[in-house]
Amino acid sequence: MLLSLIKYSFRKFKVSETKRHELNYLFWECTTRCNLNCLHCGSDCSKNSVNKDMPAEDFFQAIDTIESIPQNFTVVFTGGEPLLRKDLELCGKELRRRGFKWSMVSNGHLYDKERHISLLNAGIGALTISLDGLKESHNWLRNNEKSFDKVMNAVELAASSNRLNFDIVTCVNQRNINELEQIKKLLISKNVKAWRLFTIIPIGRAVHNPELLLTDNQLVQLMDFIAACRKSKEIDIKFSCEGYVGKYEPLVRDSFFFCRAGINIGSILIDGSISACPNIDRSFSQGNIYKDNFYSVWENKFQPFRNRDWTRTGQCKTCKDFKDCQGNGLHNWHGEKNNVLVCHKEKIETATYREHR
Amino acid sequence: MKRNVIRQIVGGLSLTSAMFVFQACYGTPQDFGLDLLIEGQVKSKTSGLPIKGIKVSVADNMQYTWTNEEGEFSFYTEMLEELTLRFQDVDSIKNGLHADKDTVLTDLSKDIYLDIVLEEK
């Protein structure tokens, strides 16, 4: 009864947030150059040295169209690898001068003491670093034998700063699923406070590497691990907002599932495209900063993000959880968009059904 | 205003602490803005001219920066109850020889501008 009331209230909350569509979170795909060659490249970020880095002044011209700065507005530098941009700190300082906060997602490879200090000096406020396993499995996924040591150095630096709101993300796959307990202990020993886990969806290079994708049983194993760790409260652990997880919804995150892409999350991509999260199919682009007024696009377009009725197709058409899920994370819709690419709830239910047979 | 109140009520009923503080799947946590901007200029007491190359550091913290041609410096640092800024001439006789100086800052509730004067050795 209470859970039903909470779920009902959350649905109403989502409707209200969608109507309001306040831009709180803006990704800037500031480069698609990268210093690694990860096995899952193209799943959550992409590497393409053909594109030139977007000139900072083009980005600032676009965000200067924002009429009033929403509360908690943050610009998130992403890539590629943002640390390859030599003007990153200048861009960060310029954002702060305008009253914006900024943060960065990094693979940590170039994050040394000097860069840590220069980023703090430039007013960085939050940071996410990828760690994808213990040494062997991390270096396997990152396709670089030095990556783990470099990341651990970056983690120690970031964790030493009280200023940074810092977390670790881990792409859970078949090589590291059984290491999660050890990774947790490692992170706690390095004074890491927050850890976010997510799975790899079958796009980019991940399509051709089945070891990257979790089986149904492994997804349940991951959910059980997160739920148990959240009870013990040793570290602030959560499942990312990548998808609706059915019966695990109240157990693996701080909040129920809510894909805020295009509702509170926007992006300016490397070619000037205006969209939501960078891992969403580029065909969802709503305009381009080189042709359109960025804020006008944010205010007046984004209909496919703010009305998700179109996702009521394929297996979502008859799903009893559609009201809470609304087509899963939008990065799960690609190509013809006839069906959701991954249904987390279905994978969990399939595993649970098999177990009880 | 009305919409905001409704938002708070409906959000509160759903008992989720993270309603208004979220992060994208592959994004960063949110920044709660717990820093302040410290900037200023360093000059020589004898000549009154700006001094380039002075190391400006935060005591008990790894953060530091350097003064530029105009003797100016600028950086963000953690908002604390009190912090000590250290001004050090570490480039030997280049740009003159100046005595080090510590400055204790106690009102760190807002951004700070400092005029620092260093005595020549």
**Gross geometry of chain B:** elongated
Distance between the termini of chain A: 29 Å
Query: How many strand segments of chain B?
Result: 7
Q: Which structural class best describes the helix and strand composition of chain A?
A: alpha/beta
What low-confidence regions of chain B span 5 or more consecutive residues with pLDDT below 50? none
Number of helices of chain A: 12
| Largest pleated sheet of chain B | 4 strands, antiparallel
CATH homologous superfamily designation of chain A = Aldolase class I
Mean pLDDT of chain A: 94
Please explain how this structure is put together.
The complex is a heterodimer of chains A (357) and B (121). The longest helix of chain A is centred in the first third of the chain and has 19 residues. Chain A contains 12 helices and 10 strands. The model of chain A has no long low-confidence stretch (mean pLDDT 94). Chain A has 357 residues and is α/β, with parallel strands linked by helices. With 121 residues, chain B is mainly beta. Chain B has a domain of 84 residues: Immunoglobulins (Immunoglobulin-like, Sandwich). Chain B has 1 helix and 7 strands. In chain B, strand 2 and strand 3 form a beta hairpin. The radius of gyration of chain B is 21 Å and the shape is elongated. In chain B, 28% of the residues are buried. The model of chain B has no long low-confidence stretch (mean pLDDT 86). Chains A and B meet through helix 1, strand 2, strand 3, helix 4 and strand 4 of A and helix 1 and strand 4 of B.
